[in-house]
Write the structure tokens for this entry.
Amino acid sequence: MIFINEGHYPSFHLTNGKLSYIFHVLESTQTLEQLYYGAAIKPRDNYDYLIEREVRPSNNLYQDTHTTSFEHIKQEFPVYGTTDFRYPAIEIAYPDGDHISHLSYVGYTQLSGKHASNLQPMLRAGEEDAATLIIHLKDNYSQAAIDLHYTIYREQAVIVRRVVVHNHGEESLRLKRLLSMSIDFPHDDFELLHLYGAWARETHLERKPLIKGVQNFSSTRGASSHAHNPFLALVAPNTSEHQGETFGFSLVYSGNFLSQIEVDTYHVTRVSMGINPFQFDWHLDTGESFESPEVVMAYSSKGLNGMSQQFHDIYRQQLLHNETPFEKAPVLLNSWEANYFDFDEEKLLEQAQLAKDLGFDLFVLDDGWFGKRDSDNGSLGNWTTDLDKIPQGIRSLASNIQAMGIHFGLWFEPEMLSVDTPVYQAHPEWIIGHPNKNISHGRNQFVLDFSNPDVVANIFEQMSQILGSAEIDYIKWDMNRYISEPFSNFLKKHQQGELFHRYILGVYDLLDRIRKAFPAVFIETCAGGGGRYDPAMLFYANQNWISDDTDAIERLKIQYGASMVYPISTMGSHVSEIPNHQVGRITSLKMRKDVALFGTFGYELDIMKLSDADREEVRQQINQFNQYQSLLHHGDFYRLNNPFEAGLTAWMVVSKDQSEAIVGVYQSQASANPAYERIQLAGLASDQAYELLELDHESKDIPVRYGDDLMAIGLILNENFTGRADEYWGREKAGEYHSRVFYLKIKKDK
Ligand code: DGJ
């Protein structure tokens, strides 16, 4: 997978038959030049034919040369301070106060699999799965060594990049900027696709042509955030869901990040991604190293779905925590929208018992069970049971619920502190904020300084007390405010620029300790919904609560957008109460189920209030999810119709062996006298006949259609009223919000 043309100035070609990534060492400067990234090409013994050097008015590195300007050489890992005037991947502040660097090639190492990090989340890579190339660079102006890591996977069109900097010198250096990757594409014939949002409307999709200059998406909030997801894709203008070139970039990081595109006046497009350099200032003392997070680069020549499937596969296989106490994906009942803070033990036991009777696997007690928390005014950081609400304590509640034959889960918000807690009384200095300046609250709470290991240890102790004393199989790990007034009372003056990164390393540390102490506990991460839906959280978690917006129609956009990067098996999705608590919309129980089905599937409503008929429907819905969950969570997901463009949304999942598929079609705009509607399916076996069953729909016969026919002509959604024209006017109207789910299975010859 890694082809190297040896010599003083070697070239490197990473390829797996699905993509090629080529760069070489430049003789004149001893630096790395990017040569090609795209569809797989055959390895050659020389790539000099890819070098492009026009003589352009510019600053050149050496006297009498006119082609040694870094501005005009496509860079593999650009530095600051010399002839490239674009934004660099690395910026080092030297003891003299200058920021001028030159990184020269020293050598390389190859290995099967990859090295692990014990500091931060990374994709796994078994020796059979992947190969890693490490390029060793040295800084000409200090004793810093810079290692660029490239891991190429055998099965997916994916390369993972990261960077490690070591300071071997006597003097300390400051890293002002260290991005995980940078790449220069030779043209700007791309459109830019990214995910943006806000609380309760996360992962909305935007696609725009590139413009000259700099465009970036970032977070300065201490979390990857609702505002921008750490993902972007460059897509050829003709790229659709099913065809065309797509380059996706996804950062395995939960803190302040930067994704940046810079198009220069020669149309070169530089993409770079990593920790946000804004407010970042890392002191690298003698003998110390700094590791960047990983960027996962996915290539597709088969459109956006092709890219997403690479991300889904690699994240399911090499990232997600797969150990769980459940035999299958658990169907959970979450107490939040049913109870908010208003509950007692009796109410919880009643709800859990009914949940068990309806077929749920897990009962989750959300916020409000600890300290004295009857509103969101206090008690965070006091992780002891509120005995007024739960007189027998969590241990007894958990074992009573487990005794019913249903698992029990509990909500925490480990990173936060309220002022009415013993921890705050003892350690007011443990919150982030300057002691002599105003400290803003968010939802009446303050952020614990997780850069301080004592803080992490305290919260670990408190959480382990609860988790160790009771039968708790699931944790919902919430985080409901961003970091403002960033100042740590623990860090030294010169380390304040390290706070955001050290904070997130502290969060990883706590997650890691919980994982090690309770390996099988199922974790659903959450940050006021999707405020921290990123690959790094998924390294520790089994799933993520992706939005507090549980409205079925709004969820179409949120889940559609999120599926660009994240597998639907990670998307916390619930059937909730109507009128919906976020938008007041009324949709049928069926439609709410049909949307949540293409996610983790759970419920968040007061089941005690359901009519007998609705209870029966819920029971059927849970059975239905259980029947199709393996297909839904392990198959290939295809987006078919985009809710950002049309009133009809559609998506589907096809099993890896193409023997079965499930299709969801959702209408969010009714129209009288409608046009013809057909949905072209994808991913089916062309020559196979599929039985087409509409779920929740009685039908006398099951139609059979061929795969090629379903993909070329499509699923026909209009009815045929031939001979029944008189039924047309009196027919039952579908209504504004309407959904249909189809199950397809290859017809077996009898
Ligand atoms: C925000 C979460 O996203 C909700 O699901 C719920 O857990 C609340 N916090 C509880 O405070």
DSSP finds 13 helices and 39 strands in the chain. The CA atoms of residues 145 and 380 lie 43 Å apart. The two ends are 45 Å apart (CA to CA).
